[in-house]
Specification:
Chain B: Zn(2+) binds at residues 241, 244, 338, 341. Chain B: This is Adenylyltransferase and sulfurtransferase MOCS3 homolog. Chain B: Pathway: tRNA modification; 5-methoxycarbonylmethyl-2-thiouridine-tRNA biosynthesis. Chain B: It is found in: Cytoplasm, Cytosol. The structure holds two protein chains of two kinds. Chain A has one domain (2-103): Beta-grasp domain (Ubiquitin-like (UB roll), Roll). Chain A is built from two helices and seven strands; from the N terminus they run αββαβββββ. In chain A, 19% of the residues lie in helices and 29% in strands. In chain A, the strands form two sheets. A five-stranded mixed beta sheet of chain A has the order 2-1-7-5-6, with no helix packed on it. Chain A has a two-stranded antiparallel sheet with strand order 3-4. Chain A is globular, with a radius of gyration of 14 Å. Chain A is an alpha+beta fold. By secondary structure, chain B is α/β, with parallel strands linked by helices. Helices cover 43% and strands 14% of the residues of chain B. In chain B, the strands form two sheets. Chain B has an eight-stranded mixed beta sheet, with helices on both faces. A five-stranded parallel beta sheet of chain B has the order 9-13-12-10-11, covered by helices on one side. In chain B, α5 (111-121) packs parallel to α6. The chains are: A alpha+beta, B alpha/beta. The A-B interface holds A 20-22, 59, 62-63, 71-73, 75, 77, 80-82, 84-85, 100, 102-108 and B 106, 108-111, 197-202, 205, 222-226, 228-230, 245-251, 253-258, 261, 263, 290, 316, 318, 320, 327-332, 363, 417.
Chain lengths: 108, 487
């Protein structure tokens, strides 16, 4: 209850963001982030990409973002589903969503 | 007969490979001794195999007729009984497997356990394709190859191991690099029911995807690196193909290979692997990602062939070995605008995949040559310069594995990022009072060239000449001291 109250009082948008398959290397080699996105009318996934680039990305932005989307070879999942099943960059983020960025592996 | 003929061809080829490999830097006498021993071993092995076959045939001859069971021999029933007792599988499943033809591309960390389980399960015909030879660094995860196989083609050692496991199935080893032309030829001469992608590079992944779409075959795709694995089935039951997910190949410099990124290796079998995982985790965190994914690939093949359903299509399974977490995520359906499997495809025949990906179709490192001639020093001159500062620019982790006396470790990644450069400056300034040459070395001589270029720019103010040690520590091992490990 306290968490929910806090959410309404501060108007932040709590989400979790995870990186794997090597995408974590661009984010300080940390795989899991709990994030409170600041107050805003609507958070689209495209907004989150920019926010991540400005706030969390530790190196080489071109290896994460290209042409206002993720670079080729990164899969984006919203609550364990491919973002293509949602509206990709236009998906409107909901409280407690889990957004995962998976870089595809090629090794064998 | 067919198999044995191929086997002999391969043996001749493997001897040629060995001859070639050991030609470098070995004394002729030693080389001859190795060759002679290898020939003797090959002959003994052939004789042993012949006798073992004879014994097996004698022992099981009485079970070869099949008056009690339709479609299978008595040996088959006994051998495969533990899977045939499953109601989802039954005798129908076993007969389906016996009639099936599976192509596995890549006999590495994924292909080995996958082939092992498929051969054990009684697939009728297994075609295995790989161009590479067995190296010592393969053995920790590529479980079909043994110590005595080093230097021979992977498909030969895989063939021997698989044939030894199950002589009742047909195994077709093909020693070739999978590209548009070799696979087109292969598909002209043979038909398959399922293809397994056990390759190690992006270009081959697109190639296998396209050939599967063009031939309407499911593609069981797996990959593994470091502590993670991924698995999905493409082009199956209205699910997406690889291009639906990844219409554009990734930038080449975002792709890591096992030789650089490392990979924790294998014991085949999901359960055995996971058990080992839990045991080993208590003392170290080493285990077996390709083994698990390769085994899971074998499982998907069997499900497709026996029409059991539950195939991992439109889903992606990821395995995080650090946390022991499997994640099963939902993928998009087939993209009607996909370039190859869409309604109006633009790719209707195989293309040049290396050109498409801007990367070559193997995971070997390609040597760079970006410096002037006088920026290099041959590795043999190292010993004549004991007082000269030698900077090893490999990652700290690799430096800790093995290093040259008096070398100073400053990783190339630090130079690239500008990390701790003040520390390096201090070191260089102190040194510049006694010397003016600084030697830069790395594993293969590529990063050291890049480092020389950047160090020249960063430290223009210091009276120093940065020189690249040609060929790096590999060259040192080859030309100066072979006891330095090549890894």
């Amino acid at each position: 209850m306290v968490g929910i109250q806090l959410f309404y009082e501060m108007n932040v948008l709590p989400i979790t963001v995870e990186f794997s398959g090597g995408a974590e290397l661009l984010f300080d080699n940390k795989r899991h982030y709990n994030i409170d996105l600041p107050n805003k009318d609507k958070w689209k996934l495209s907004d989150l990409l920019l926010w991540l680039k400005d706030n969390l990305l530790s190196e080489r932005p071109e290896l994460f973002i290209q042409n206002n989307s993720v670079r080729p070879g990164i899969l984006v999942l919203v609550n364990d589903s491919d973002w293509e099943l949602m509206d990709t960059v236009d998906y409107v983020i909901q409280p407690n969503d889990k957004i995962v960025f998976i870089s595809t592996l090629h090794g064998g | 007969m067919y198999d044995i003929r191929i086997n002999n061809d391969l043996r001749m080829h493997s001897n040629m490979c060995i001859r070639h490999k050991f030609f470098l830097g070995r004394m002729a006498a030693e080389e001859q001794k190795i060759e002679k021993l290898q020939d003797e071993i090959n002959q003994l092995r052939e004789e042993l195999q012949r006798k073992e076959r004879e014994l097996f045939d004698l022992k099981f001859k009485k079970y070869h007729d099949n008056k009690y069971c339709l479609g299978l021999t008595a040996t088959d029933i006994m051998r495969y009984s533990r899977q045939m007792l499953l109601s989802q599988f039954s005798i129908t499943g076993q007969i389906a497997l016996k009639k099936s033809r599976v192509l596995i591309v890549g006999m590495g960390g994924l292909g080995c356990p996958c082939a092992l389980y498929l051969a054990a399960a009684g697939i009728g015909e297994l075609t295995i394709v790989d161009y590479d030879e067995v190296e010592l660094t393969n053995l920790h995860r590529q479980v079909l190859h043994g110590e005595n196989d080093i230097g021979i083609p992977k498909i030969l050692s895989a063939y021997n191991r698989l044939k030894n496991l199950n002589s009742n199935i047909k195994i077709i080893p093909i020693h070739t690099h999978a590209n548009s032309s070799t696979l087109t030829d292969l598909f002209k001469n043979k038909t398959f029911d399922v293809v397994v992608d056990g390759s190690d590079n992006v270009a081959t992944r697109y190639l296998l995807n396209d050939i599967c779409v063009l031939n309407n075959l499911p593609l069981v795709s797996g990959s593994a690196l470091q502590m993670e694995g991924q698995l999905t089935v493409y082009n199956y039951n209205k699910g997406p193909c690889y291009r639906c997910l990844f219409p554009v190949p990734p930038p080449p410099d975002t792709v890591m290979n096992c030789g650089d990124g490392g990979v924790l290796g294998p014991v085949p079998g999901i359960i055995g692997t996971l058990q080992a995982l839990e045991v080993i985790k208590t003392c170290t965190s080493c285990f077996t990602v390709p083994g698990i994914i390769g085994t899971l690939q074998a499982l998907e093949v069997i499900k497709i062939l026996t029409k059991q359903g539950g195939v991992l299509s439109s889903r992606l399974l990821t395995f995080d070995a650090c946390e022991a977490v499997f994640r099963n995520v939902k993928l998009r359906t087939r993209n009607s605008r996909c370039a190859v499997c869409g309604d109006d495809p633009t790719i209707t025949t195989l293309i040049d995949y290396e050109e498409f990906c801007g990367a070559s179709a193997h995971d070997k490192v390609i040597d760079v040559d970006i410096l002037r001639k006088d920026d290099h020093i041959p590795v043999k001159e190292l010993s004549s310069k004991p007082e000269t500062l030698l900077i090893d620019v490999r990652p700290t982790l690799e430096f800790a594995m093995c290093n040259l006396d008096n070398s100073y470790n400053f990783p190339y990644s630090y130079i690239k990022k500008g990390k701790d450069l003040d520390k390096l400056r201090k070191k260089l300034e102190d040194y510049s009072t006694n010397g003016n040459e600084v030697l830069i070395i790395c594993r293969r001589g590529n990063d050291s060239q890049r480092a020389v270029l950047q160090l020249k720019e960063i430290f223009t103010d210091l009276p120093l000449k940065f020189l690249n040690v040609l060929g790096g520590l590999y060259a040192y091992s080859n030309a100066v001291d072979s006891s330095f490990p090549i890894y």
